[in-house]
Structures are given as C-alpha cells and as structure tokens.
Specification:
heterodimer, A: about 90 residues, mainly alpha, 3 helices, B: GMP Synthetase, Chain A, domain 3
C-alpha cells in the first residue's frame, strides 16, 4: 500500500461520514474539525471506518493524531509499516 | 459481570459533609421562600439573574476570585475575576443600549465556548433583554427556524460562522438588525455587521441594572417535540432561585469550588449550569473551548484542580472506550463530586467511574421546560446505579396516567410505569412556549406538569427512567424532533416521504436513522443515499442530520396519515410490531 493509497483511504472515510464536505480545498495541516462540519460522533465514525478500510486498530489514545489529513497519513503509514503490511 | 445494585456513601465520609447531609430532613424543611432568601435581592428592584450571578459578589470575598478560567483551542489561558466579568457585562449592556436594544428584545448567540458568549449572555440579562443560545453546529435551516420563532434582534457570532451559516439566510431574517462579530476579523462595513470587540472596548464599564420583575422574560431555550416546529421555552428571572439552590443541593457547590460543566452552551444545561448556577454560588468555572479528547480532558481535570464535574453519558462512555489505564496516569483526587445529565446514564458507567476514576457519577434528570435539576442522585445519598435518583427538596414528583378525554390518574404504588409529572410552582418552570399558548397548555393537567417521560419508582423512592412517551430522539445529549429532520429530507427533489427514528447506540444512546421513499422514476442507489446525507447535513448540521439513511418502498402510516415511527423502530430492532390495526393498507 502506497502513501497515496493511505491518503485516498482517509479522504474516502471522511467523505463517507460527511459527503457534503468539499475535500479538494482541505488544508492538509489543519484539523478537519476546523474546516468542515464534523462533531465528535462523526469523528468516532470516521476512525471506525478507517480502521475497517485499512484492517488495523487505532488505540483511542492516538485518536487526536488523526485530526488532520497529514497527521492521519503519517500516523497510519507508521502503523501499516509496524504491522508489516507494507510491500 | 454482575453490577452492584447500590453504591453506599460512608456514614461519616466526606459526602456527608455536603450541603445536604440529610436528604429527608432537607425535604421536610425546604421552602422556596427560604431558597429565595439565600439570594441578596436589592430593595424594591426585583430580581435579576445577572445581578445575582455577578454584582452581588462585588462586596464579598468572591470579588477578586476567578469567575471564569478560559482554556482556548490553541492552548491559551485567560482568567476573568468576578470584578472583571461584572465590568465586561456592564460594557455589553451599554453596547445594547447604544444599539437601541432594550427590555424584552431577543439577543441570540451562535458561537462556541469563548468569553464573548458569557459576556453577551450576562450583559443581555443586565440590560433586561432576553438571551437565547443556539448550537454552533446547527446548519442554516434550524438556525433560521429558531431565529424567526424567537424574533432575534441581535446575534453574537464569529466571522466564520456568519459567512457559513448566517449570510446565506440573512435576507430571510426580517427581525435581525444587528450582528456582532467576535474576534479580530473585521467584516466590510456594508455587511451589516459590527465588531463585538470594538463596541465592547468603547463602551462604559458602569451600568445600572434596571428594575427587573422576577416574572420578566429572561431566557429562551429551544426544544423539540415529535411533530411541528421547534418550541421556544420561556424562562423568567425568578428561575435564578432554582438555579442557585439546585447548584447547592444537587451539585453540592461550595464557594471557591472549581467547577467544570462540559455541556455545549447551545442547550439549557450550558446556561443553567454552564453560566448561572456556578456564578451565583461563587465558584470558579472552567470554560474549555476545545472538543472532546480523552487524554486532554483528564489533564484539564487534573491541572485545573477541578472539584465538581458535570458531564454527559456520551462523554463518560467515550472515556470508558479510552480504557482504564489512561486515567491512572492522572491525579483526579481533587474531584469531590461528579454528575451526569443529557440522557439516562447506564449503570455500567456509574460503576465504572467508582472503580476506575475513584468517584461514581451522580445521574440527574431535568428538561428544557423545568429549567433546572428536578430529580437527582446526591452527594449524601446512596446511589442505585441506573436510577435518576430522588426529587429535589421543593419538588413534588408523581407517576401518572393520562385519562381518555382529559385529566390524569396518580399511580401511587411502586414499580408501576407511568408518566413522570411534577407539581407546578417551582421558580424555573417554563412560563410558555413563545407564541404557542395552546401547545404550552397541553403540557399540564390541573396543577401537574406532564414531562412526556415514562418512569417508575421503587420501594425506596428512587425514580427509574423507562422510555419517552413520544417519538423524540435523544442523541449525545441533544433532543431531536423527527419532524424537523423529515421536513429537511423531503425538500430534496427525489424524496417522496421520510420517517426518522432513533436507533440505539452504545456511545450516543441513540443515533438518527432516516427512511425515505422516492418519487416515481427515482431509483435507490449508493450515490443517491450519499446525496441525501449531504443534503441533510448541509441544511441541518451534523448533530441533528441522520447518520444512516435507508430506502423504503413505502413509509408506514396510519389511515389518518400519521407516520408509524414505532413500527419502523420495532422492525429495525427485531421486536414485536405491536398493534398494527391502524396501519394504512398497502396499495
């Protein structure tokens, strides 16, 4: 799985929860919640969808690290490599 | 695991040193006159909530105490003493006078937990105007509906929220004259907006609160029923008597406590216990702008030395998800009392607090209409996990059944389910639904207020929530009216009909699920499902929009055309469908 795939999985998960959000204009370094309408239940659903898509488990403590697009990609890449799922 | 049925309070422990060491004795001796006498009412000038919250403390030991400690989103911290907050709210009252806003005029807020919100709320009350908070996560439709019903004349908001949610609907808000924008950004002069900060900086910090009749309208809080538009519950200045005394008895406030209410300021808890009661009781309030984050929240509890904490079942269940190890790395020993409100707290959550955090959560029950806590678990009373607790001193609660053709029957035996009713006459009882006298009247039978909640009472006098009598949905502490959601869905050109129910959810208690039937020629598809989700979220905002949408060939209705939401729910949960004799025939 490439970094591009991970990014696509994050964006697809966001879109599933908030299909109205314009993700093209998303600032990758800013928190999602400051840019799109997203409440705490949305955030939880977003993490659960991503876990399912990528087949991994994100400990609750790490949730804040998924708050922005760049943060989420970096974090998930590390997880994927750690889990030995990288090519 | 078997849960304990009772969490005992030590006979001589710290709990017994609370404001109400003996519940039964407190009930016997309580009168509302004595509760009112705890407030210092200036001779002949009536009763004003903001005076009781702020100015009253200026000549006492609390004058220099921190009233609000604001923790900003970016880590900034700012303290406001009672003296500071008095001066700032005086300024805001003068700002309103300068704009020609006076007694009875409605001032709305649409913003997060920032100091300007508290200054606006209390400054509005000083001016004699009426304060109405809105959820900042509402979409433009619920905002517009509420601002029209409430005849909003002034709105306090931020530039970002204004652009996203108000500018597109401003032409449809004929009563709205002044928009005050909080923060550094200045909108162009032709936007019809003023800078909140500039107006405040240029206003005088002295203000004489006009004589206020205790029955003058003070607050508007919106709530929802199964059908019809949202209702604006009217509260008056006398409500402060109940805010103050319930803060003392149900939340065990002592002067100098550090209190954190995590409720959103957009709903009634965020005002009654997020602004008024903690200030009348001279506590220091923590105002945390950021959203939920388990680790950060434990840190706030520890670093700010929080002594009394009022939160919600959804938050507690999210903390439970985060595990038992996390809180062990924090010192939470300063917390003397923790309470929960929003929806019934499951017994596991009460017990989890006791075992894992070192303190149990005390669930309590009240509604927008009651204005303050009515039934509670108290510091000094043993907790039965899962129970709402017992009625406050001064509150008479009964279980009733509505008779066909009017009137009620009081069910006095324990264990019987019926509707929770409260004897009228407590000061924070709502006085009307604005402009809807008839809807208001249907909430009462004789001198009983009918809550719409089905409960039972056990042999020891503890009340237990059973269900709602109507179809409103409780999701993460929000009360959602299905009609408002259904109406928004039906505005989509592909939708013929819509029905909305609450599905049980392990975290939020319920989540909104919608069923839609499509117009002729429209086919169900994943793309259309997403389009409808987007449509609803754009109009309603994430908090009340459905989290799930399913297509139905036909929405089940009675022959008279009423949507059978209960049938949909029973089908969804695999339960017996009950009496379907009223169901409209399939065509």
């Amino acid at each position: 799985m490439t970094e591009e795939d991970t990014r696509a999985a994050v964006l697809e998960s966001l879109q599933e929860v908030a299909p109205e959000a314009d993700l093209d204009g998303l600032d990758p370094d800013e928190s999602f919640r400051d840019q799109i309408e997203f409440d705490s239940i949305d955030y939880l659903n977003f993490v659960l969808i991503m876990e399912r898509k990528l087949g991994l488990k994100v400990p609750e403590l790490d949730y804040p690290r998924l708050a922005s697009l760049s943060g989420a990609v970096v974090y998930l890449e590390t997880k994927i490599i750690g889990a030995g799922k990288a090519p | 695991m078997k849960l304990p049925t009772l969490i005992r309070k030590a006979p001589h422990g710290k709990e017994r040193d609370g404001n109400m060491p003996d519940y039964d004795e407190a009930r016997r001796s309580f009168t509302w006159e004595r509760a009112r006498a705890e407030l210092d009412v200036p001779d002949g000038t009536g009763l004003n909530i903001a005076y009781e919250a702020l100015d009253r403390h200026l000549h006492g030991p609390a004058a220099g105490r921190v009233a609000i400690r604001y923790l900003g989103r970016k880590g900034e911290k700012q303290d406001f003493t009672y003296r500071d907050l008095t001066a700032l709210t005086n300024r805001f009252a003068n700002v309103l006078s300068g704009l020609g806003v006076g007694k009875g005029d409605r001032v709305f807020s649409l913003c997060g937990r920032v100091p300007a919100l508290y200054i606006s709320a209390l400054g509005t009350l000083k001016r004699g105007a009426v304060y109405c908070p809105l959820f900042s996560s509402f979409g433009p439709e619920p905002i517009q509906t509420r601002m029209i019903i409430g005849a909003a004349r002034v709105l306090v908001t931020t530039a970002a929220l204004y652009r996203r949610k108000i500018a597109p609907i401003r032409k449809d808000l004929p009563c709205l004259e002044h928009v005050l924008i909080v923060g550094e950004e200045r909108l162009p002069a032709d936007s019809g907006c003023h800078s909140f900060d500039d107006l405040l900086a240029n206003a005088n910090d002295r203000f004489r609160i006009p004589d206020t009749d205790p029955e003058d309208m003070a607050l508007l809080h919106f709530t929802s029923g199964t059908t019809g538009k949202p209702k604006a519950a009217v509260h008056v200045h006398a409500a402060v008597i109940a805010h103050h005394i319930t803060g003392r008895l149900a939340l065990d406030f002592h002067p100098g406590d550090v209190f954190w209410c995590t409720a959103d300021p957009g709903w009634v808890t965020g005002t009654s216990y997020g602004i008024i009661a903690p200030l009348t009781n001279a506590t220091t309030m923590i105002v945390d702008e950021g959203g939920f984050d388990a680790e950060r929240w434990y840190r706030v509890l520890q670093d700010e030395n929080v002594t009394v904490w009022y939160t919600s079942p959804t938050v507690i269940r999210m903390l439970m998800r985060a595990g038992a190890d996390l809180p062990r790395s924090f010192d939470l020993s300063r917390i003397r009392f923790a309470a929960s409100v929003g929806e019934p707290l499951n017994p596991e959550a009460v017990t989890w607090g006791d075992k894992t955090l070192g303190f149990p959560f005390h669930d309590n029950w009240w509604q927008t209409e009651t204005g303050g806590i009515m039934i509670a678990n108290y510091a000094s009373l043993d907790i039965k996990p899962g129970s709402m607790g017992k009625p406050l001193p001064g509150i008479e609660a009964a279980i009733v059944r509505r008779r066909d053709g009017g009137g009620i029957e009081i069910l006095s035996s324990s264990g019987i389910e019926g509707e929770l009713a409260l004897k009228t006459g407590w000061p924070s009882m709502f006085r009307n639904y604005l402009g809807e006298e008839e809807r208001y009247r249907t909430c009462f039978a004789g001198d009983w207020y009918l809550s719409g909640d089905i409960v039972k009472r056990d042999d020891d006098g503890y009340f237990w929530f059973v269900s709602r009598a109507d179809d409103v949905i409780k999701s993460a502490g929000h009360l959602i009216g299905p009609f408002e959601v259904e109406s928004a869905l039906m505005e989509h050109p592909s939708v013929a009909e819509a029905a909305v129910i609450g599905l049980p959810d392990p975290i939020a208690k319920e989540v909104v699920k919608a069923y839609v039937s499509l117009r002729k020629g429209q086919q169900p598809s994943e793309a259309l499902r997403r389009e409808l989700m987007a449509h609803a979220r754009q109009r309603l905002g994430p908090t009340i929009a459905p989290r799930e949408i399913a297509f139905e060939r036909k929405i089940p209705k009675t022959r008279s055309g009423k949507i059978m939401r209960r049938l949909l729910k029973a089908r969804e949960l695999g339960l017996a469908e009950g009496d379907v004799s009223m169901l409209e025939e399939e065509d």
